[in-house]
């Protein structure tokens, strides 16, 4: 065989390539013709300057196009005509030629439409039946037949339904199965081109006429409708069905599936022939339904959702064409008649035809309706139940179009049973999407519901709703807990939206029907208020939503408490923790928002009065249940579930209130009418006393140990039970917060009821951290709505009756001899700290002066009650001691604030100091100090002597200097006695085993000593140096307790640093480093720092009185601790006390007793100088301490500093002239003689020493006596 001779296989490929090239050239020519036709338009063409008849050109062009189309049709049918098994390469070439032929037919059809105005709907523009008939018979029908044949011959469209009817062709295909599966080109691109060619014949233009054109009639009637059926079958073969998707391995590209579905949609829409589609309805509906199920159930991809939405649209279009009414056709027929008589005559003719043949059409229509009602509603209901939960916008929107067909366009065809089932399913689908996140879908849903309502009429609409709406809402609400507990988030959201939809549909007299915002924000009447307002319905709603709003106990975890002190702004703290801190166990954020919106919408439907009764009932039942369970001592699982239910019911009541009160605006508050405010005010007066009463409000949110319990250290045993109680209290405070926003400034009328309980929960004592933060947020909201600047202002301006309530409770406990509640101590701390802060920020404003006058005597009375309670306890517990010391600290701060204000009003500067060496009568001062009465004080005589005075007389300690009857000014007797009373108890508690308590005692004592020092300075400024200083007898009395605690703490700290590691194994050493020893060193460091601060204050305020105690008691401890810090192995652990030590030394040598301690400068300086080499805060504090010593005695450290600075000693300037001495001095003060090879630490040390030497040069010399 000759190798150079081409084979048949190669010849086929070459021929197909030539064919493709010819078709490509033909396409370019057709494009030029199409462009020329568009440019010519309707004007007569000119050839060589002569006008030519356009009709002749059109006829000739039509004949030429028909001749061109014939070979293209043959190319499309080549595979079916040859009927042979080809190689994969030949098959691919055939597909390529068929693809080009299909695109060429599309271009020919575009030219024909441009020339002759062919339309698929309405009348064609040619008005020439002969031309229309020729074009249809010679081009349109053959093209469609060829497209159908081409699609059926492609492998990609090979049908595989799982049920084969074997004939000769099927046997042929089964023989070539292995060959076909080996093809690489299955004809996807070819099928895409053929589908586009088919679509080009059925794409609608701008005509809205439902009347089919001659082309549509010919295509629909061709072969008795078999052509359309074949085209539909070819398109369906490219779409997956439910069974095929599960069993077949055949894969079809998603773009090809989209094109097939779009072709079906255009085919149905382009042939408005009711009888035709009724005959094809069963098979086409089944195929499209299977595709929808396959895409919605088994394929969650975005492309699958697009195909599913297009298939649903096609189904809707099919139902409209096959089952829709003929109103539009009748309207078009009436428009064609030119007179009323002609229309009447046409009606008579139609009636005559109906009378002549009454049986066949009507019986056929009845059969169709019967089949439709028996087979279609079930599948449609399945589709409508699947689509609401799909996230795809196109799927949900196509479902709405299907609902429009069911509810409006084909409503007349359904039986009553199907209207109740399928019609209700479509109605609920539209109601569900009223609250859709997409605005377009929500708007479309509203339009469909309005059309449905208009088609029924007002009476039928209300009758329709009355039968289903209230029972449906209750049924849906009952299913919500099960959906939430099972974790079906999408189904839960759908059910909540459906509840909202039913509720929205019940409102009447709407300006914009079915508008959610109007229902929620405007006052509208609902038809279901009475049905939902009965006790049975309210019980169902409350219980169901209480389960949904079950708090997530895991999110209520202990966090750092908000410590309120006089230097912090509680408003900022509240803003920091403002917001919804409560999370729900079964709801995410979206479902939580949907659930709250549902409850608020139900509240709008119930109305104000029914909501008020519902809220009152919720809290009444909650209070009764709490009273019944108050007797149980130990928590159980049943009690935990009960508290979760209370919390859920509280959230329901809060959302009911939010719904009935209307929207909120940050500028004007709630948009609530006067009648609504009147009802809500009455409800508040009924509900608030129940909410803040025992035992509901006082549920313990933290584990509390009884005062006489020997196992009081096991404090955290009931923390989980406290979290359940905390959730209930948080919900109650959220309700109060919302009520404050609703009532606005009228909330002031309820301050006597709610303010004190809220402060109880805002206290850091005896409360869970989440409860405290919620209380701060609530207080901030109340202060904002009531017109106060911040929380401190709110408490300060209402401190009179707050302290009065505290005094009444203290008297009650004193009379009964019972233990004080921890929350009461927390209230005292919060109130006093807030008053002090408000004094600081307000200055001498008149609005705060009255608060100061009224609070002094009440605070004194409170202090006496606290002291009596403290003294009565034989075995004080840790918690009780902590709470008591915190109160003592707050009272000391309050007293200090009062003293500061009086001193400021007097206009005397107690910090001004004169020359200590001039005009100072030391002998007079010595006589005063020797005659000081150190016998202490008598609490019973002078501590509260002014509490029983006339309340109209202001206390003497709060009067300005000009208003006091004595020239000596206020004596501060009450303040001095109160401070000494607190100091005596704190001195006693300094020996307590708990380090935290010791630190609090030190802080309280420090505040007391500072206040006594200020009083002494004030007296000296008024009376001179002969005035007595109340700080001195306090030092004499309480110094033994302080120095004992200082010695014990320093010894413990030193011993903790001297653990013998040789006796420990590596594992024990690691455990020791990570265990309690490290923590104890830290706490001991904090305690020592607090004690050092007290010593520094005593030195500063005692005017030399403290010098001997510091020299003999304190300095040996300092020297020992500094020696420990100098050990090289200590590392960074010494930083706990090193900085406070250096600060103490600096403060001592800056105090009034510094000159008495001149002898300690050499020794103390030698201890501190090594720390100059430290980098950072330690080195800076060491440098500051040395500077303080240099101001006292610079000569004692001059020589050591010279050595550290590596600077040579200056020569004796006796034998030098002035110029040489000046040169040597200037050079010596600036040069740093340090070798570059030395350590960096030595360089830092030398530089600091040089700066200190420069500082010595700037100090003034003391005169020689």
Notes on the structure:
There is one protein chain. The protein is mostly helical. Among the domains are: 8-39 and 57-119, no CATH class; 413-555, no CATH class; 625-702 and 722-841 and 852-901, no CATH class; 1125-1209 and 1239-1264. It is 69% helix and 1% strand. Strands 1-2 form a two-stranded antiparallel ribbon. The protein has a two-stranded antiparallel ribbon with strand order 3-4. Residues 950-1049 form the TTI1 C-terminal TPR domain.
The geometry reads as elongated
The averaged pLDDT comes out at: 76
Strand order of the largest sheet: 1-2
The largest pleated sheet is described as:
2 strands, antiparallel
The level of helicity is: 55-70%
* Helical segment count: 53
Structural class: mainly alpha
InterPro entries: ARM-type_fold, TELO2-interacting_protein_1, TPR_TTI1_C, TTI1_rpt
Region (Disordered): 943-969
Domain TTI1 C-terminal TPR: 950-1049
Protein name: TTI1 C-terminal TPR domain-containing protein
List the helices and strands and how they pair.
Elements: H1 8-40, E1 46-47, E2 50-51, H2 54-76, H3 78-82, H4 88-116, H5 129-152, H6 168-175, H7 177-181, H8 188-202, H9 214-221, H10 226-237, H11 242-247, H12 254-270, H13 274-298, H14 302-323, H15 327-336, H16 340-356, H17 360-375, H18 377-386, H19 393-409, H20 416-432, H21 439-456, H22 458-485, H23 489-505, E3 507-508, H24 516-521, E4 525-526, H25 529-533, H26 535-548, H27 570-576, H28 589-606, H29 608-629, H30 637-661, E5 664-665, E6 669-670, H31 674-691, H32 719-743, H33 751-762, H34 769-786, H35 791-797, H36 799-816, H37 822-842, H38 846-872, H39 878-906, H40 922-930, H41 939-942, H42 973-989, H43 995-1023, H44 1031-1057, H45 1066-1074, H46 1076-1101, H47 1107-1125, H48 1135-1148, H49 1161-1168, H50 1177-1192, H51 1198-1204, H52 1218-1230, H53 1240-1258
């Amino acid at each position: 065989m000759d190798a150079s001779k081409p084979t048949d296989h190669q010849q086929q490929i070459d021929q197909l390539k030539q064919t493709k090239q010819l078709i490509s050239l033909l396409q370019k020519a057709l494009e030029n013709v199409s462009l020329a036709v568009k440019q010519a338009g309707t004007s007569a063409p000119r050839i060589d300057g002569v006008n030519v008849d356009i009709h002749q050109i059109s006829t000739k062009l039509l004949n030429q196009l028909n001749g061109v189309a014939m070979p293209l049709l043959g190319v499309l049918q080549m595979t079916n005509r040859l009927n042979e098994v080809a190689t994969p390469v030949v098959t691919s070439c055939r597909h390529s030629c068929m693809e080009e032929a299909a695109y060429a037919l599309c271009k020919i059809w575009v030219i024909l439409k441009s020339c002759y105005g062919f339309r698929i709907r309405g009348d064609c523009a040619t008005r020439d039946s002969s031309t229309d008939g020729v074009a249809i018979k010679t081009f349109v029908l053959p093209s469609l037949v060829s497209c159908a044949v081409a699609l059926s011959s492609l492998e990609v469209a090979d049908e595989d339904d799982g049920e084969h009817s074997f004939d000769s062709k099927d046997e042929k295909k089964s023989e070539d199965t292995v060959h076909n599966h080996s093809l690489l080109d299955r004809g996807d691109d070819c099928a895409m081109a053929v589908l586009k060619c088919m679509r080009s014949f059925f794409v609608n233009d701008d005509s809205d006429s439902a009347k089919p054109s001659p082309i549509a009639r010919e295509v629909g009637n061709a072969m008795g409708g078999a052509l359309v059926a074949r085209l539909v079958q070819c398109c369906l073969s490219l779409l997956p069905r439910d069974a095929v998707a599960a069993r077949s391995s055949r894969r079809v590209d998603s773009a090809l599936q989209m094109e097939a579905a779009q072709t079906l949609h255009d085919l149905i829409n382009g042939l408005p022939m009711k009888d035709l589609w009724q005959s094809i309805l069963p098979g086409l509906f089944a195929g499209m339904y299977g595709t929808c199920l396959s895409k919605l159930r088994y394929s969650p991809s975005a492309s699958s959702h697009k195909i599913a939405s297009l298939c649903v649209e096609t189904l809707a279009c099919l139902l409209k064409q096959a089952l829709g009414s003929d109103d539009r056709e009748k309207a078009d027929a009436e428009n064609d008649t030119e007179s009323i008589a002609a229309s009447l005559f046409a009606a008579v003719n139609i009636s005559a035809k109906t009378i002549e043949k009454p049986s066949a059409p009507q019986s056929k229509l009845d059969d169709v309706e019967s089949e439709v009602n028996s087979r279609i509603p079930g599948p449609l209901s399945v589709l409508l139940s699947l689509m609401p939960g799909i996230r795809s916008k196109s799927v949900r929107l196509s479902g709405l179009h299907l609902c429009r067909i069911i509810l409006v366009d084909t409503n007349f065809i359904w039986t009553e049973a199907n209207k109740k089932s399928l019609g209700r399913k479509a109605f609920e689908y539209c109601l569900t999407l009223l609250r859709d996140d997409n605005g377009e879908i929500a708007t479309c849903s509203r339009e469909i519901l309005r059309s449905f309502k208009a088609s029924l009429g007002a009476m039928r609409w209300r009758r329709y709703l009355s039968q289903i709406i209230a029972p449906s809402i209750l049924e849906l609400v009952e299913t919500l807990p099960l959906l939430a507990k099972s974790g079906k988030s999408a189904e839960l959201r759908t059910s909540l939206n459906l509840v909202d939809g039913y509720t929205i549909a019940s409102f009447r007299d709407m300006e914009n029907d079915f508008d959610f915002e109007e229902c929620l924000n405007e006052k509208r009447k609902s038809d279901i208020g009475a049905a939902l307002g009965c006790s049975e319905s309210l019980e169902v709603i409350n219980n169901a939503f209480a389960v949904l709003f079950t708090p997530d106990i895991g999110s209520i975890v202990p966090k750092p408490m908000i410590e309120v002190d006089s230097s912090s702004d509680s408003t900022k703290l509240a803003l920091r923790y403002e917001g919804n801190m409560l999370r729900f166990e079964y709801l995410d954020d979206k479902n939580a928002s949907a659930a709250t919106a549902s409850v608020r919408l139900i509240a709008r439907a119930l109305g104000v009065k029914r909501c008020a009764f519902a809220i009152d009932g919720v809290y009444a039942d909650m209070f009764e249940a709490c009273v019944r369970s108050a007797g149980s001592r130990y928590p159980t699982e049943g009690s935990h579930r009960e508290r979760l239910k209370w919390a859920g019911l509280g959230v329901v009541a809060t959302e009911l209130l939010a719904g009935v009160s209307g929207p909120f605006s940050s500028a004007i508050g709630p948009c609530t009418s006067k009648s609504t405010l009147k009802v809500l005010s009455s409800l508040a007066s009924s509900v608030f006393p129940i909410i803040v009463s025992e035992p509901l409000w006082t549920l313990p949110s933290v584990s509390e140990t009884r005062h006489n319990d020997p196992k009081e250290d096991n404090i955290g045993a009931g923390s989980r039970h406290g979290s359940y109680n905390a959730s209930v209290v948080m919900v109650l405070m959220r309700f109060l917060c919302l009520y404050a926003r609703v009532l606005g400034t009228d909330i002031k009328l309820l301050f006597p009821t709610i303010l004190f309980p809220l402060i109880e929960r805002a206290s850091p004592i005896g409360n869970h951290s989440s409860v405290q933060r919620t209380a701060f947020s609530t207080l901030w909201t109340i202060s904002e709505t009531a017109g106060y600047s911040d929380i401190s202002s709110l408490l300060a301006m209402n401190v009179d009756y707050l302290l009065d309530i505290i005094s009444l409770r203290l008297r009650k406990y004193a009379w009964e001899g019972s233990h004080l509640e921890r929350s009461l101590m927390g209230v005292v701390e919060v109130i006093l700290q807030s008053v002090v802060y408000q004094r600081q920020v307000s200055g001498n404003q008149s609005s705060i002066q009255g608060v100061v006058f009224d609070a002094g005597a009440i605070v004194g009375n409170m202090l006496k009650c606290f002291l009596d309670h403290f003294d009565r306890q034989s075995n004080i517990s840790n918690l009780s001691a902590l709470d008591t010391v915190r109160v003592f600290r707050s009272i000391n701060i309050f007293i200090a604030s009062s003293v500061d204000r009086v001193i400021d009003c007097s206009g005397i500067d107690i910090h001004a100091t004169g020359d200590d060496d001039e005009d100072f009568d030391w002998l007079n001062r010595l006589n005063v100090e020797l005659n000081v009465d150190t016998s202490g004080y008598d609490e019973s005589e002078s501590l509260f002597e002014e509490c029983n005075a006339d309340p109209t007389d202001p206390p003497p300690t709060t009067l300005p200097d000009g208003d006091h009857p004595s020239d000596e000014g206020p004596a501060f007797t009450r303040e001095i006695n109160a401070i000494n009373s607190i100091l005596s108890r704190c001195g006693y508690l300094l020996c307590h085993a708990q380090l935290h308590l010791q630190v609090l005692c030190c802080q309280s004592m420090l505040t007391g000593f500072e206040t006594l020092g200020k009083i002494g300075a004030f007296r000296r400024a008024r009376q001179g140096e002969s005035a007595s200083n109340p700080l001195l007898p306090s030092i004499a009395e309480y110094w033994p307790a302080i120095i004992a605690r200082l010695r014990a703490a320093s010894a413990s700290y030193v011993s903790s640093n001297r653990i013998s590691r040789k006796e420990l194994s590596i594992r024990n050493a690691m455990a020791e480093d990570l265990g309690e020893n490290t923590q104890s060193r830290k706490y001991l460091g904090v305690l020592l720092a607090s004690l050092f601060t007290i010593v520094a204050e005593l030195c500063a305020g005692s005017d030399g009185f403290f010098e001997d105690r510091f020299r003999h008691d304190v300095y040996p401890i300092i020297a020992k601790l500094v020696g420990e810090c100098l050990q090289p192995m200590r590392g960074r652990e010494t930083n706990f006390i090193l900085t406070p030590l250096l600060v103490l030394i600096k403060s001592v040598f800056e105090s009034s007793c510094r000159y008495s301690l001149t002898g300690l400068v050499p020794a103390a300086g030698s201890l501190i100088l090594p720390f100059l080499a430290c980098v950072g805060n330690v080195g800076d504090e060491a440098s500051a301490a040395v500077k303080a010593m240099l101001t006292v005695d610079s000569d004692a450290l001059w020589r050591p500093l010279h050595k550290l600075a590596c600077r040579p000693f200056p020569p004796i300037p006796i034998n030098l002239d002035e110029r040489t001495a000046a040169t040597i001095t200037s050079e010596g003060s600036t040069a740093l003689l340090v070798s570059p090879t030395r350590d960096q630490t030595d360089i830092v040390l030398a530089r600091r020493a040089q700066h200190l030497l420069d500082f010595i040069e700037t100090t003034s010399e003391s005169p020689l006596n």
